[in-house]
From TrEMBL:
Protein name stated in the entry: Cationic amino acid transporter 6, chloroplastic-like
Gene Ontology CC entries for this record: plasma membrane
Main location: membrane
Species the sequence originates in: Durio zibethinus (Durian)
Protein topology in the membrane: Multi-pass membrane protein
């Protein structure tokens, strides 16, 4: 029988339509089946863990099949300058206005700018790793997607859960600091006077901040409306903010004194150890650049825009952070710097009270910009984790008219507002740093593994063994540094890291280079990133590790009791639909002929 070519085309279109329709109907069908079989599924936990924990997706599946689960596509409206502005807006305001004063006073002294340089180098190296992944896999999942296609489902989930924890806690902390600077803008020195104290609650959770809640909910509604309009709002605020930073830097250098950098106690009164401890805490300041990678599905020309947006924003922000830290320490001796609203208080101490009020207003605006970008990124992370069925699938829905992940944005906005209402900044700041450093450490490991094993088809054992030795040596170096007495460990473990890296580069070939963008000088830059992330993690306090361990246990239990079963059921159902989705083409053609 002769088949009209137009009918062939129609049949193929029909197949595609049925495929997309089936993908869109999976969530509701899956949820019914999942809830019905849940108790029976618990008895199969070992089998399902073996099958799902190391299950990986290809980049093509991540870009196409998984993305269909959101129903509608996100709208590609952003250009490279939007990304640079979003990256700058996301980082500026968080670090300088939240961590600089307390780190200068308690950890680094006037050498806090060196702490920023060290943290900036680590962030830049991590951003290079992010950039290569984001160019090759331009999806909204960021580190979650990169690790899932490399190390499997559980590692991706673990990283994704930590990223969400980092975003929600940091946004809550920054929202509370917004109240402090708004108070300063109105000439109020005690921010707690604008908070409601409840005596029955624990210390650190007993000062309710309704202003922080209001700004979080307002930004949540803005982000639900449109990504492009939110980007334009951020661009306007970021331009103003950079000009405002220039004002602080110029006035600070003009009115400050170099003597304050060396008196009292010298440039580094707490020693080299204090500088490095400070670097681990101010790393909190660089949260935000990774949110740029989560916008990959909304960018025009990702291979060009993403490298410019991610790396450009990190370099610009690093320079501004160092200059701002210097300006603060030149205006006021480090032991007189206020831990809260540091810059406003510094201007008031040099007799420029009006400037202190202006700084409070400008800092408030910068904090709003950084909150906007961070909340933009956190919703996209949760949306993609929902696509993977590791959390309830309704969180993955993209609204067809606005093109935004509406449910994820609303859910995380409510969570952030709830934490901002109760929790003091000191309680969350270090657990944020440890979660961030761990995720960046995993991304650097994933880049080496992907480049040498998946791309270049080398046997995995050599690369995995190298990564194990590298991490062990970095931990050994860091513990030797922390114990103070074990100085012999520093040259020993440092030498081991250099030796094994050189040996690995010589023995394991890395021939091909991606056609678009890749990290130069592999594996050295990724190795330095791994080392710095491990080293900075070990400088944090033991309480941070204890809190992080509790969080890690909670998310692991959630994966075992929910995530693994949900993804197992979803994959089984999709396999069945892939087999049965389209009837015999000849039957379709006969119907069409009729």
């Amino acid at each position: 029988m002769h088949i009209n070519p137009h009918l062939k085309l129609l049949t193929e279109s029909h197949k595609t339509l049925i495929s997309v329709t089936n993908m869109a109907t999976i969530p509701s069908t899956h949820n019914k089946a999942f809830s019905f079989n849940y108790l029976q599924s618990l008895s199969q936990i070992p089998h399902r863990l073996r099958k799902r924990m190391l299950a990986t997706w290809t980049p093509d599946q991540e870009l196409n099949q998984v993305r269909l689960r959101s129903g509608a596509d996100m709208k590609r409206k952003l250009r490279w300058y939007d990304l640079v502005a979003l990256g700058i807006g996301g980082m500026l305001g968080v670090g300088v206005f939240v961590t600089t004063g307390r780190v200068a006073r308690n950890d680094s002294g006037p050498s806090v700018f060196i702490s920023y340089i060290i943290a900036g180098i680590s962030a830049l190296l991590s951003s290079l790793c992010y950039t290569e992944f984001s160019v090759q896999i331009p999806v909204a999942g960021g580190a979650f997607s990169y690790l899932r296609v490399t190390f499997g489902e559980f590692v991706g989930y673990f990283a994704g859960a930590n990223i969400l924890m980092e975003y929600v806690l940091s946004n809550a902390a920054v929202a509370r600091s917004f109240t402090e600077y708004v108070c300063s803008a109105f000439g109020v020195n005690d921010p707690n006077s604008w908070r409601v104290e409840v005596h029955g609650l624990l210390e650190g959770y007993n000062k309710l901040d309704f202003i922080a809640v209001a700004i979080v909910l307002l930004l949540t509604l803005c982000l639900c409306h449109s990504t492009k309009e939110s980007s334009i709002l951020n661009l306007i605020m970021t331009i103003f903010h950079v000009v405002f930073f220039g004002f602080i830097i110029i006035i600070g250098f003009y009115n400050g004194s170099v003597d304050n950098l060396v008196k009292p106690g010298g440039l580094a009164p707490y020693g080299v150890r204090g500088v490095l401890d400070g670097a681990a805490i101010v790393y909190f300041s660089y949260i935000g650049y990774d949110s740029v990678s989560t916008l990959a599905e909304e960018i025009q020309n990702p291979p060009v825009s993403l490298p410019v947006g991610i790396i450009g924003s990190v370099l610009i922000v690093s320079a501004l952070y160092c200059l701002m830290a210097l300006a603060l320490c030149m205006m006021v001796p480090y032991n007189q710097i206020a831990e809260k609203a540091s810059y406003s208080m510094a201007f008031q101490k040099i007799g420029w009270k009006w400037a202190g009020n202006v700084v409070g207003a400008g800092a408030s605006l910068g904090i709003v910009a950084s909150l906007l970008v961070a909340m933009l990124g956190q919703a996209r992370y949760l949306c993609v984790i929902g696509r993977a069925r590791l959390v309830p699938s309704w969180l993955s829905k993209v609204h067809p008219s606005t093109g935004t992940p509406l449910n994820a944005t609303l859910f995380l906005g409510i969570c952030t507002a709830s934490i901002a209402l109760f929790t003091d900044l000191d309680i969350v700041i270090e657990i944020i740093s440890i979660g961030t450093l761990l995720v960046f450490y995993l991304v650097a490991n994933a880049l080496i593994y992907r480049k040498y094993v998946i791309t270049n088809k080398n046997p995995p054992f050599r690369t995995l063994f190298f990564l194990f030795l590298l991490t062990s040596s970095a931990i050994g170096f860091s513990i030797s540094w922390k114990l103070k007495q074990q100085w012999w460990g520093l040259p020993l473990f440092g030498g081991i890291i250099i030796t094994i890296t050189a040996f690995f580069q010589y023995m394991v070939p890395c021939l091909g280079r991606p056609s678009v963008w890749s990290v130069p000088f592999m594996p050295w830059l990724a190795v330095i990133s791994i080392f710095l992330n491990v080293f900075l993690m070990t400088t944090l306090k033991m309480l941070s590790f204890q809190r992080f361990a509790i969080w890690a246990c909670l998310i692991t239990v959630f994966y075992v009791l929910y995530g693994v079963h949900s993804t197992f059921e979803a994959e089984e159902m999709e396999m069945e639909m892939a087999v049965n989705e389209v009837p015999d083409p000849s039957i379709q053609l006969t119907k069409l002929d009729v």
